[in-house]
């Protein structure tokens, strides 16, 4: 049962209590939480004092119109299942995250983003409606025009407003799911920022891989991969089973400085020095790591932390440098270092993470206190830049950092179903609420 309800970071692993959706009520003191496929990195998908409701068993797609691209499915359906159905009809997700092994409900609850935020915004923009089950037993069909506050709170609300049972989304028509990719390497972070305005204006998708270990004049070097659905891309293959597997965690972290230095040098060296264009399979562009089942186990038995931040464009160049240098100065090595732009799209979600600027993602093996100290230092840089952290990639940010990232947390708490709780919300928002209540009582007592 422990493995069944693990988060992707695997830092905390033990058996967790599950319950059927039929038992969802206000009778359990520590509450319930819907659990999709465990692709959140931290504790936003856990409720260790309460119960988890498994959403995947029996989940199915109930309707798809190949003329309009409108699809309705149970919340536990994986995005890979949706793609397998719609791609032969010339449709694709308007927004797809870095893995297709995310449930539909999870994509909504986390308002996930992809490589085309600068053109399409977040996943929530594709959501037409969903049915939300409350602990009062009521089922509410939420949309931009019906139960609107609940609709907005649920998109990006990390499952805290109730249980999303089914959802209807809009897909986009594409000539092919496969991608015409233009890739080139840049010698330093300046190369990325000097090129990105023109790249993003010309292409639907863009993402940059960064060699986090490069120093000096090569600091921030990497490979930029822009893409568009190919007019001559041909038929796309349906999602396939992973070609490789990491069935068990090795006794040590295999993604260490030594192995990553070799990998980074090879990956960077193989990338074209000048822009080169070719057709690539959709899966390798959007979801390359889905080809390796259990790749997160490569970080070893203690799991991993992911740090994803967003910060304003005005200071993005120096903030990116500061974050990379901070990790280097702490002796840390990040395997998956990704840099993308977020556009000026307002999400329909109350608590959505993306906002205008740039987002940097870093992965670190869990080395205990040393890793936590470094992550706090990274937080300080983000905070000083006026940025924010991604809650569904987190399992250790302070309540204060959460409040700075999401000052609207009180509105979210007001919309939370009283029978729903997560470990993330318990250690951030509930601590903030408790401290505010204590301060208020102290103030009242002082004036009594």
UniProtKB/TrEMBL annotation:
Task: Establish whether keyword Flavoprotein is in the entry.
Answer: yes
Key words, A-Z: FAD, Flavoprotein, Oxidoreductase
> What region holds the FAD-binding PCMH-type domain?
4-174
Q: Which Gene3D superfamilies match?
A: 3.30.465.10
The residues the entry assigns to the signal sequence are: none
Give the residues annotated as coiled coil.
Answer: none
So what family is this one in?
Belongs to the oxygen-dependent FAD-linked oxidoreductase family.
Q: Write down the PANTHER family for this protein, in alphabetical order.
A: CYTOKININ DEHYDROGENASE 6 (PTHR13878:SF53), GULONOLACTONE OXIDASE (PTHR13878)
Protein name per its UniProtKB record? FAD-binding oxidoreductase
- Phylogenetic placement of the source organism: Bacteria, Pseudomonadati, Pseudomonadota, Alphaproteobacteria, Hyphomicrobiales
